[in-house]
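Subject: Sanity check before I submit

Could someone independently write out the structure tokens for this chain? I want to compare against mine line by line before I put it in a report. The sequence has 200 residues.
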Amino acid sequence: MFRADTRATSNSINVSNSYMIDTVYLYIETILGNNHGIIDVDVPPVVNQPKNENQDLKDLLIFLWDSLIEATNPKKVILIGAGRGCRSLAGLINERDYSIMEKVVCTIMIPGPNEVPSVSKRTDLSTWYQSNANVLLPANHPFWEKKIKREHGTCSKIEDLNNMPVQDMLVHLHNDMFSHINQILVSGGPVNSSNEERNN
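---
Independent answer below. Compare away.
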């Protein structure tokens, strides 16, 4: 990500005050620094979002799950979705439900201003998702006006995220997220905690 500081008079970029923000690298560095493996799938920003983007990304995630996760059979898998990728990640969970319920110990979704994804309403999957998935949302997200159900996961309302771009949310949440993840890896199971939970 490139953050540009522009001049008010000409709208040209002030190079000396502009800088690169690599939020993904921050996460990769933390994960590899703790001797864990990582599969990173980046969804680049586009001006005109392709109609089949969600399906294409879901198909890619299914391919990676089948080819890498199933093939290597890791004991503890953590799924992290951000921005538009959250919807496709929920699609993966629906498509590989039993395998994911067996292997995944934590799911974190940071949709930002995008639609909050849901998994199948099937009782076993939605119950698992509610106890396993932490969905971190700005307090001003329109989702809070809806009735929140199990298939939405455990949703947390976080005032600090209001009006933040997704990349900034990732930086802001980094330390708390990995503290939560480390608790789960030590305990071996979900440890749900949130600012506000409204699940039925």
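---
OP: Matches mine. For the report I'm noting this point. The domain at 22-40+53-187 is CATH 3.40.50 (Rossmann fold).
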